[in-house]
Amino acid sequence: MPPTPPTVVLPxxxxxxxxxxxxxxxxxxxxxxxxxxxxxxxxxxxxAVDPGQDADLDELVPGLYPERVxxxxxxxxxxxxxxVADGAPALTAAAARWVQRQYDDFVTDTPPGxxxxxxxxxxxxSAVAGPLIAVRFTMYLFPGASxxxxxxxxxxxxxxxxxxxxxxxxxxxxxxDAVQLITSALRAKGFDPDVETLADDDVTTLLDGLTFAPDGxxxxxxxxxxxxxxxxxxxxxxxxxxxxSAYLTAAGQRFRQATRSPSEFRPGSRPATSPAAASSSPAxxxxxxxxxxxxxxxSPGSRSSATRSSGVGTRTQQPSTTRPPTPTATPTPTAVxxxxxxxxxxxxxxxxxxxxxxxxxxxDQLIDELTAAGAPATFFLLGPQADAYPATVRRLRSAxxxxxxxxxxxxxxxxxxxxxxRAEVTEAAAAIEAAGGGRPTLLRPxxxxxxxxxxxxxxxxxxxxxxxxxxxxxxxTVTARRAVDGASNGSIxxxxxxxxxxxxxxxxxxxxLRAKGFxxxxxxxxxxxxxxPGQLYFSRNRVR
Length: 544
Prior knowledge:
This is Polysaccharide deacetylase family protein. 26% of the residues lie in helices and 19% in strands.
């Protein structure tokens, strides 16, 4: 069941004060390590749309990395991410506040019940030029029925320290006209919008759907369920050139130009002003945030060219956004992953350590600990994390660790149709391969949640029989005790390398398991034979 909302879920990104317009709002699930949940795919959601920037713009933002929180309760799955960027305190703080609010609202408004629930937030850079940077969030909210897709963009000018949302880029005197335009366009398309009782906050939420495309076109993505039935999805209302010029503030015109002509992020510079922006009105006096420059955290290193940029923000053990320095990148090795034949686990008492959700800020330290102890392990990576930490991915492979797939967005796969599930797996595989990790051939579905469709995706599915619940306890002693006490011959132990306490627990786990006579192996070594697509591997002695 969801917990009482903590006072702080995400570490404060900086001292920046942010005000943005209000927006709308243990082991595999169900039992130990074997959910067969048949929750229906998202129903009544219509077609989710995201007509934003498709280019891999995160490469233009040095020092940008994702912070992520993953929580797994009996029937509640939470995975949220936010950006942290060098030289972008206004964006970083605005993103942290918005993500925090969505988390708090979900935990408060979604009571425990029999139906599975899910909150998933991802993001990507949608515009960048000079000091201008925009990040577009994609949120999937499943409160037990009728899943909802939410799109939300934060626009930040780091030269002035002002961050706002789509509504803040529309001239205040044009807001009523914009609502009328949206209403008329929807009716012309055959929709029946209900705008009779729209409150001011609802108008802000509606106009927050303002979106710029790479060709310079402007549109409004209508939030799902706000003025239309959920089944109508999120229709897009395009604006003409004349309408865009009339509605947009000067800041809006600059972000439109930044989307059309992206360039490297430079916090102290000013982007070239387009003729349209020069002739527009002064910047909106609507909801904004101001902030000052902060010391930049250490950059994760060179990025890979993954299929897309996505990410989200981690609850960290320490309230800090400064990451330990990333070790010098190791060249991508030519050797393949361990074939799984060097240890005979039919004769030895073997245990496999596995780590999910990374790589992250503590993974390099974990590699050091495992390498020093001569202990192999298996890592199931998320696509955006691999994209953000390619040097760490290469270190994992070079150190002889096995790399598996943990999907792209950490969605609960049972809430997705076949095409969505396949995209989650194939896009993550491409991102991991682009980062230097090779093409993964093992899959661990997020939350251990799967259905019959998941078993057709073409990969063996690695589950577990020992759950340390390290994400919940965040205590090295407790994590070590649960790992060691729960282990038996052939066990697969679940941990998460996003947490410092987990890394601190690993030396204890390794030494205590060996003292009990266990040999530490990778998952392929545990079985000593090729794992079969669609099969579920909970331990050496439990395969389904």
